[in-house]
Amino acid sequence: MPKLRELAAELARRKPTLDEACELLDELGRDAQRDEFLVGVFVLAKQGKALARLEWKRFGRWIAKLDNWETCDQLAMGVAAPCVAARKELERELLALTGAASPWTRRFALATAAALNQKGRERVDLTLRICTELAASREPTLVKALSWALREAGGHDRARVLVFLEKNAAVLHRSVLREVAAALGRGT
User: Fold this and answer.
1) Above pLDDT 90, what percent of the chain?
2) Dihedral through CA 78, CA 83, CA 84, CA 89, nearest 10?
3) pTM for the structure as a whole
4) What does the alpha-carbon distance between residue 158 and residue 6 come to, in Å, rounded to a whole number?
5) Under 8 Å CB-to-CB from 24, ≥6 apart: which residues?
6) Straight-line distance from the first to the last Cα atom of the chain, in angstroms, rounded to the nearest whole number
7) Are 124 and 153 a contacting pair, CB within 8 Å?
């Protein structure tokens, strides 16, 4: 991973525009190779505030390439979360991903929701809406991401997350109940 980040930093020093960084990710993600895709994500993530102008339709191509937690979470944390945080109208687009057939697309929604409560951002409402849609998930990758999103939201609004746990206790995976309750200082 350090070598991938070094390569991305070298490419980012060339100061690509937002469109150029998107095109790079398109090209590097064409063959769905993990390392190349991650380099593209890291370069795009370095666009900072320019990510607010990123068109949501671009995400469709990238999300279709997701097949593991690492590429999924890096795209969600580094690119999607800053984009959604800057543009409230994208909440609907993110929420729609919870109904996708692919578990990686659904994890992407959860990972983005988790990251929306990091780095000074606070989007507890959206996170709980996404978690509500996926509360009954049993796929291991979704169970882990659900716990993560709820823990991050709980860092901003512990009481609301505890209410969410109580309200959804019958459908939530036991590990989600246990991990989130423990992280928030309340046993199950």
Assistant:
1) 90
2) -170
3) 0.94
4) 37
5) 11, 16, 40, 43, 44
6) 36
7) yes
